[in-house]
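Pair request: fold both.
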Amino acid sequence: MRILWIREEPGPVPAGPRRIATAAAELEIAADGDRVLARLDGTVLERVRLDGRVSSLALGQDGLVTATTSVGTAYGLCLRLSAQAAAALLAAERQLPAPERAARAAELYLGAASTGFAVRRLRRLADAGAIEPGEADREITGAVRNDPPAGDPEAAFEAASAFARSGCFEEAVGHYQAAFAAEHLRARALHGMGDCFQALGAAAAADSVYRRAAACGPSEEQKQALYDLARGLGERGRTVEAARQLEFLLSWDADYQDAWAHLRKFRSGQPAQDADLTVPPTVSTVRRLAARDLLPSVDQRGIDAYDSSFYHQFDNTAVQDTVKKRLEMVQLLTAVDPTRIGSSLDIGSGTLRYPQVLAGYGVRSVGIDLRDSGVRACVEPEWLRRFVVADGTALPFRDGSFDLITCMMGTVNHLSDAQRLRLFAQARRTLRPGGRLVVSAWDPRCAFQSFLSFYSPMELAQLRGRLTEPSQLAEELRGSGFGEVATTPFCTFPDAQAVGVSVPDEDADTLAALVELDHLQTARDPERAGQLFLLTARA
């Protein structure tokens, strides 16, 4: 899209239409902030950035697009393709023969439009099932090698992903770095870059970009979720929490919708009138934990006090790590009613975190780990009788000993495939009929994955190499004789959001807000991947 002329517009800038259609219905011109986009059949054909928010668009009979911005500038823009040429391009696409359709389509797009459009269009056809995904990747990588899509972050991201899927990790890294220029792609680009460095054996580089991914702010989707969460909290009279959510949102985007107006309303104690947010059952779990004093502040002796001193070297556990542990606890005690459990075993128990929690419900709970240094350093002596040095792949307990077995916070991610299958078999053996196995693990599909901060770069690299998708773990459990296997994602937001909406001694209300944020995002997208997931199964 070329700029033919620019002129200053005197006086106030009138608002007008920000979306117009051409004579060819498939070609649309639209404003997106300070950019003008031309879309062909829903695929971005070209775009241009102007000097301010686009306030109006107009299309002349000669095909010239006039755009006016909020700062009082008018632009004359010439499209790469006329409406007639765009219609002809789509007609030619529909007539492509099935054999070699991807290659023929790539030639068509490159000849008529640009590399960026070719990349996006090929990916769209692959997603629609019109061409094979592998063929699309082959044509995308070939086109980009000949003519990189400079200044087009979206096309760069798709190209990087195609290179990565093809095993061309070095080439993928450069394109992920080009995609980093777009804020909405930043976290995903960094995560993809980290995976490429990991595949190349560059552990230090992988650790660097993974940490940067964790520090990225919320995406547009996550901003909307925060906004909706605040509105819902405000409607229910929880205006202090609602204001906190909006303050965090505004710290990233000071112009987000009408957030300032709602913040002023919440600060004055006035609830919103038109928000609607279903309260998830996990919120009631938070209340039960608070009632049993299982959410102490950091200056009390309790869960986080001994967790934070785990082996004496983890005494500076970050706030976001505490959030993940507490969200995991809420998910477990929502999935399992502890008042109906007589006995439990926690595999990889470390400092007996869960046996101490479950003991608050009257459960006879035992923890095992490969070493006892954690409990001896961080746990009161009377708890030592609840701990056994043992291997989860060879449990020293009789058949049917427990009602519940837990293996939490990514313990299974430290195991090989064979070790994991032995652990599942041992859990099946030592559970009573109808007993439950609950596993919490890190999800490799998450685009902003970050692990607990006390892991070293070497440990992080090893851990990343052992992550397993929820679907594979679920199949392994079924193969081990378990039924009623279910998966629940949680911590569906980057660490920056966890830090921004929590405080060192976060109370039940703050944790409940984070639980509701998880609920909002998974309700909108049931396939959404969180940083962790809970897997439950019945023996």
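--- second member of the pair ---
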Amino acid sequence: MSALEEAIERPEAVRSFAARSPLHGLDRHTVGFADVLAQSVAAIAPAAASAMAVLMVADLAGGATVLVMALATIITFLVARTINQFTRRFAASGSLYTYAARGLGTTAGLATGAAIVVGYAFISVFALLGGAHYATMLVTRLWPQLPATPIALGALVIEAAVLAIVLVRGIRLSSRVALVVELVSVALILLLLIVLLVQIGPIHPAAIFSPEDVSVAGVAGGAVLAITAFVGFESSATLGVEARSPLKNIPRAIVWSVGVAGVFYLIAGYTQIAGADAIGGTTSVALLDELASRFGLSAWAAVADVGIATSGLACAIASTTALTRIVFALARDGVAPTELGRTHRRHRTPVGAIAVAAPPITLIPIAVVAAGVSPWDAMKAVLLISASGYIVAYVLVCIAAPLFLRRIGEVTAGSVIVAVSAAAALTGCLTVYLAAEATAGNPGVWLTVGIAVIAAALIRWRRRSPIGEVGRYDEPVAAHVLGGVARSGSAGDGSAGDGSSSANGGEPGDADG
């Protein structure tokens, strides 16, 4: 018998591993790169964002819309590079919350967790409203006599049902459904954009930049809205436990999703601005539809509306998927109630978090539309709240990264420059944007302030009680190590006698199922 064969047959005992990961219960290491990429792409929802975000950016940035989209791409790429300082080193379900806790400590970690929960929750509401908005436009185009509000409510109810089913059934179903929907939607819109570009004709320099209606406040506000077209790119990091080769696949998914979305947005932005210039301007809230109608492509616009509506649903699925993983991580760290860390015995999904997160996300847009508010008007306030949550979380993680790298002895000048540049740009743009929107009377500003006050009060209250280790991540367990023997009494390992200490055994199911 060779030395290798003898080591396998009679491995030396290794006692430094836990019986279970702190994040046990999820379907560990089963999700491939395509599913991880699908999570980030669907959360970004480039099909829906190309139609909705570009129009909102144009309202603020004016003639600098395309350049602002390019600026947002650069800033988002810097943030992605910084987040990947963490994703290349450990896998976690808590994503940005876990990263900030590792770099800045408990209080900053909780603040980041609160901010990203707000970001994911309200972007899900925004996406459901967007899906209902485009579904309503599609139906009323075919049957103009039908009232808009009942159609929007019906669309929201259908979206809510699909969202709940897919979330419980598991990440592989949700990511694949979202990826197929998004790919088809992007293909439909890209074809429409290409045809419109041909119809519009030669390049319009004024569509790339025109000094008309350009201001510092408009550029900063437009940059914030443009960045919201990318938010969710980091959501694949919430699959750190469930992904195969997470330290390789998640960083790739994050960078690829930002790069592809950035190119797509630049094409969409230029096409819509040049098209609006070609037809002499417009005040439409569905610019792609109007351009298609003006250039004799009404039937294609109807098909694109289907793509945009379903893209909104895919975004809601992906964003809520990420949200539930964050809530799950908070519960496993002892920050949130333990019940929220419960997982499904069969599907191995965080059903405790789903049961708390899904109802308000689906009921809020239904209540708003039932109250007589149009989906488009509601989307403007909701987007501001979501953007504020995301950007605050991004800023805190960018501050945390250099400190984390210094602590582990791997800080470089380049990583510091990238992180500080991203944090400064995000902070400046958000400050100017919120000031401008407050002056304009956007109710989302005061809702954001109210949510921030509530979050701060909850964090202060929670800090009065002892909190264990915050920001825990997935760790190798005894069952996955040759000769592994679970240490007894270790935090987060469950019971030592759960049968997982065999070197050849698989990871046990979740006892909390």
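Observation on the second member. The two ends are 43 Å apart (CA to CA).
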